[in-house]
Specification:
- It is built from eight helices and seven strands, in the order βββαααβαβββαααα.
- By secondary structure, the protein is of the alpha+beta class.
- It has one domain.
- The strands form three sheets. Strands 5-7-6 form a three-stranded mixed sheet, with no helix packed on it.
- α2 crosses α3 and α5 packs across α6.
- The two termini are about 20 Å apart.
Length: about 200
């Protein structure tokens, strides 16, 4: 079983939380600790788990509980389950996890590559990130699962993009394998992949 970073496809050593930079021609912008390790990336960012929900948002910083994320984790069981759901977590290069932050997925005009051959573009002014083509359907199906499982509502423009990505990037054997490994660990998995 080969595991790779989500955005660049670099081979990963999960125990060491490292990846093979040369194998995917990843070139960091800032060669710091985060550029040398993998992190658990929320495909649907925690910020949006709190904000795409139709009820009141738990995303409020409070001295009693800490940061907005810490407050959500302490005070909102739905958010905590969604935040920790393995379907929504994947290994990513720490630097890209940081750059992506809570940016929305979209198509970034142009193809300026800042990270070597890694097909990952971002536009901080537009607040968007464009992932490589062969994970776009994976992203869509994770969003569909998260929406259905945790009562999240996506803006029409995002939903249209996700529908397109689902259609242009079909379910792969690696996606099915990952889904079944998740089922083995947490007892549930993404039915949008199982179908």
């Amino acid at each position: 079983m080969t595991t790779e970073t989500f955005y660049c496809g670099c081979p990963v050593d999960l125990e060491q939380r490292t990846f093979d930079r040369a194998a995917c021609d990843y070139v960091p912008v800032n060669d710091n600790d985060r550029a040398k390790r993998t992190e658990a990336e929320h495909i649907l960012p925690a910020f949006w788990i709190a904000h795409f929900h139709p009820g009141p948002s738990c995303w409020e910083k409070d001295e009693a509980c800490g940061s907005a994320r810490e407050c959500c984790l302490k005070n909102d069981d739905r958010f905590k389950r969604a935040h920790n759901d393995l379907v929504n977590l994947t290994p990513a290069i720490g630097e890209l996890n940081n750059v992506r932050s809570n940016l929305t997925y979209a198509i970034v005009p142009g193809e300026e590559r800042l990270f070597g051959s890694c097909d990952f573009e971002t536009d901080s002014d537009l607040r968007i990130t464009e992932p490589r083509e062969d994970v776009r359907g994976d992203i869509a199906r994770v969003y569909f699962y998260m929406g259905e499982t945790y009562d999240l509502e996506f803006p029409d423009e995002l939903r249209t993009l996700l529908d397109e990505w689902d259609g242009t990037d079909p379910i792969s054997p690696a996606e099915v394998d990952r889904n079944e490994r998740i089922r083995g660990v947490q007892g549930t998995a993404n039915d949008f992949v199982s179908q």
